[in-house]
């Protein structure tokens, strides 16, 4: 169990960032579901409840998702069921249970760059940007590779397009962590293949995505591209599966993902 | 630190520690329907409603519940008894340790889903573990309770 010496619910982001910067072990709290499984010693816990960051809304060009939005809200929101072939609801629906997803937040899931994350993989195949209080707005892929620095994830911006996408995961049992997960999307002829739970954090298979964007995908080509994705990404071993097993899963899930998205109209 | 919340329609002021979890606070105030078992936020035994939505009370700080409306099974005696009668008639109960959290999830589902299919019921209730049974009795009871086939 983690410990907290003090807890503050700031009224604005400036104040939240100030407190976060004050001491090394001051920490932003999300839903606390993952934090509670660790033994972290937190000096001041910063709860963002009062910042009204719990929302999903659309503007002309973007869908905006506040950091304190729960995964269950992501799963049930009509806008997200409609866009991108419902890939975001699809990606979170098998994470433990409803009462868990009602508590855990989008901001904590993304900011923590969890390797096991289902959501990050799905977001990565869309045109997603993260907005950090200090570092500003940047593509999710850049955020994932930049070194960890203390900041506050404020919201996500997802470009509104006709992008069609699908999400696939392999789990040893329902509601368990993914052994491997894959998201595939297409906008016109531009494809993106993202693979997560490798078990390290999700990454885009850049070469395979580029190959797919140039080819007229026949079954043979799709198999070749899926093979390419499994070769260009690295995989590791943990108690859920070996690197070799994950590599084999990657090829199969990528192939299935492409086959699912292929017949969808995205222009 | 002091928090104010509504528990089963009653306003209370409680002293809690900064790192106290809601499940522990509720139990210490006599709400013994709240069970905890898994320690990994996956069993559903500690389920309560916060502002009408089912939540794991083991995975939220009591301070984060400040100003909110909490419902435990003690606050829903009529609905809980009606479902419990059906559960026992279907032979779905054995030790009963998971029942309070499970019933809170079933009642939340009844409020949220309209005429759910078997697949939707199973999806909604995944994350409520029972180690005595094979879930078939519960599924029969839920279908009877909701009036769905």
What do these coordinates show?
The complex is a heterodimer of chains A (267) and B (149). Chain A has a five-stranded antiparallel sheet with strand order 4-5-8-6-7. A four-stranded antiparallel sheet of chain A has the order 9-10-11-12, sandwiched between helices. Chain A has two domains: 3-51, no CATH class; 53-267, CO dehydrogenase flavoprotein, C-terminal domain (Enolase-like, domain 1). Chain A has 267 residues and is an alpha+beta fold. Helix content of chain A is 34%, strand content 25%. The relative contact order of chain A is 0.12. Chain A has eleven helices and twelve strands. The model of chain A has no long low-confidence stretch (mean pLDDT 95). Chain A starts with a strand and ends in a 6-residue tail after the last helix. With 149 residues, chain B is an alpha+beta fold. Chain B folds into two domains: 2-74, Ubiquitin-like (UB roll) (Roll); 76-146, DNA polymerase, domain 1, CATH 1.10.150.120. In chain B, 36% of the residues lie in helices and 15% in strands. Chain B contains five helices and five strands, in the order E-E-H-E-E-E-H-H-H-H. Chain B has helices at 22-28, 77-89, 99-112, 118-125, 136-146; strands at residues 2-7, 10-15, 47-50, 53-56, 69-71. Chain B has a five-stranded mixed sheet, with helices on one face. In chain B, helix 2 crosses helix 5 (136-146). Chain B is elongated, with a radius of gyration of 15 Å. Chains A and B meet through strand 1, strand 3 and helix 5 of A and strand 4, helix 3 and helix 4 of B.
């Amino acid at each position: 169990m983690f410990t907290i010496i003090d807890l503050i619910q700031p009224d604005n982001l400036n104040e939240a960032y100030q407190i976060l910067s004050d001491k090394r072990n001051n920490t932003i709290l999300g839903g606390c579901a993952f934090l509670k499984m660790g033994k972290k010693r937190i000096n001041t816990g910063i709860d963002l409840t009062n910042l009204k960051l719990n929302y999903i809304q659309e503007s002309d060009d973007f869908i905006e998702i506040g950091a304190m939005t729960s995964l269950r809200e992501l799963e049930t929101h009509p806008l997200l069921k409609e866009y991108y072939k419902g890939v975001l609801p699809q990606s979170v629906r098998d994470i433990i249970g409803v009462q868990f997803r009602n508590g855990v937040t989008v901001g904590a899931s993304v900011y923590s760059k969890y390797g096991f994350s289902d959501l990050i993989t799905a977001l990565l195949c869309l045109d997603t940007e993260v907005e950090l209080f200090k570092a500003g707005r940047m593509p999710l892929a850049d955020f994932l590779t930049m070194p960890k620095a203390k900041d506050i994830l404020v919201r996500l911006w997802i470009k509104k397009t006709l992008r069609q996408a699908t999400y696939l995961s392999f789990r040893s049992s329902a509601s368990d962590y993914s052994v491997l997960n894959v998201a595939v999307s297409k906008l016109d002829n531009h494809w993106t293949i993202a693979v997560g739970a490798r078990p390290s954090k999700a990454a885009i298979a850049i070469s395979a995505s580029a190959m797919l964007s140039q080819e007229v995908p026949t079954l043979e080509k799709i198999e070749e591209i899926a093979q390419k994705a499994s070769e260009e990404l690295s995989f590791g071993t943990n108690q859920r599966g070996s690197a070799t097993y994950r590599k084999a899963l990657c090829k199969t899930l990528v192939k299935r993902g492409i086959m699912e998205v292929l017949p969808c109209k995205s222009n | 630190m002091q928090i104010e919340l509504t528990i089963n329609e009653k306003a209370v002021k409680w002293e809690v520690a900064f790192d106290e979890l809601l499940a522990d606070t509720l139990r210490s105030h006599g709400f013994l329907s709240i069970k905890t078992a898994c320690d990994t936020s996956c069993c559903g035994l500690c389920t309560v409603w916060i502002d009408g939505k089912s939540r794991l009370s083991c995975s939220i700080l009591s301070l984060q519940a400040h100003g909110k409306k909490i419902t435990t099974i003690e606050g829903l005696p009529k609905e809980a008894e009606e479902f419990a009668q059906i559960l026992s008639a279907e032979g779905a109960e054995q030790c009963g340790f998971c029942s309070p959290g499970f019933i809170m999830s079933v009642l939340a589902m009844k409020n949220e889903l309209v005429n759910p299919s078997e697949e939707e019921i199973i999806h909604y209730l995944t994350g409520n573990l029972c180690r005595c049974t094979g879930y078939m009795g519960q599924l029969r009871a839920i279908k009877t309770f909701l009036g769905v086939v």
